[in-house]
Amino acid sequence: MHPQITSILLSEFHHTTGPMVKYQVPREVITKAHFDTIHNYIIPKPEFQGRLMTVNALGYKIVGCPVSIGDTKYQRNALMFNLCFVFEQDVDTINHEPVVKKLASYLTQIELESGFLSAERSQGLIPQFMEKVLHLLNKYGRCSIPVGESITVHLKVTVNISEPPPVLDHDVPILIRDRVRPHHEWDLTTQQVLPYIDGFNPTCRIAVEADVEINLVKSCLQNLLHYNIIKIIPVFQYSNMYTVTSDIKKLYSDLQEQCVLSVAIKGHTLPRLRDIMTLYTSMTHGVTVKDLCCRYNPHGLKIDEKKLIQFGVVKNLIRVLRKYPIVVPSNSEPDPRLRSLYTLFDGLHCLDEICCKVGIGQSELEERIENDPNVRVCMK
Questions:
Q1: 354: which residues sit within 8 A by CB, 6+ positions away?
Q2: pTM, rounded to two decimals
C-alpha cells in the first residue's frame, strides 16, 4: 500500500506580494503563517528550478518541483510556481517523487499551450484538478485526468518490490503454491532444483543432490521467494522446540479442513482436529518434538509429526525456538573439540547454521556444548 498524500498545494510567486499559496486541497493544512517560514524553499532561487526538493518542517514532509516559465506576457517576465505534495513527516515519499516531477512537467506543458495556470478563465478549474489528483492517487495510486481539449494527465505511483532476503545454507525451502508453472517453462537451474524442494532439504543439501553450484541454487531460491512460490522454514529436527503464535486461533476459524488433510498420515483415516490442537498447544520452551512424540504418539493419532510441524510453520501457527551458543568467561578448560568453533559462538549464529558450516550433526554438537562449561545456549 502506497503512503497517503495529506494535501496538495499550489504555490506561486506573486509579482507584488512574493511567494504565496494560491490553492490548497484540503485547505489550511499548511497555514499562511507556516508557509511564510518556509516559502524560500517552495519558491527557491533560479538554480533550484526544475529539481525535486523535499522540505521537512512543521510536522510535514513537503515534496515539490519548482518551475519557472520565462515569457514577457507574465509580470516580471516569468511565471514561477510549485505544485507540492504534503505528507506526514515520517512517511517514505520516494515512490511519489517521480509523480511530483512528472506533474510539474505536465503543468508546464498545459500552461504553455492554454495558459491553464495563469488565465482567469481557468482559475476555477485548478482546485478541482488538484482534488481529483489527491483523491485518485490516494485511492488507486493512479489517475488519468483530461485537462483542456488535447491533454490528459496520466500519473501512477509505483510500488517498491522489496528484494527477498538472501538464502542461507541451512535454510529449508518449501513450495507454498499448489500449482506452479509447467516444468519446461523454468530456466535450467530451476528445473534441476525444483524436484528437491520438499520442505526438509536445506539449501546446502539441495545443491549437492541437484548437482548445482550452491550460489546458483541460492539465486534460484531467492527468485522463487520473490514470486511467492516458496517459503523458507527451519530445518526439521526432533530436538527442535516450538511455541505457538497468536495465529493459532486460525486453526478453528479458517484452516480446519486444510490442516487435517495436510498433517494426516498417508493411507490412514483423517485425524481429529482436537488431537492436532493438543499437539500444537503442547509446544513450548523445554519441550522438544521428540518429547511430544513420546508423550502423545502422533502416529497413533493418525498424525505425521513432520507434516504437523511443516504446516504449522508455513501457516505461522507455531515458530521455532532457535538455539544460539555463546562463549562465556570461565576459568574452566574448553572442550578441545569445540575450541575451533568459539568464533561462531557469539549469539548470532544458530545451531542449524553452525552445523551446516562445519558439517556436524546437531545432536553431536549439542552434546559437546553441554559438556563444555564455557558455552551457554540462548533460545529465541
A1: 325, 341, 344, 360, 365
A2: 0.59
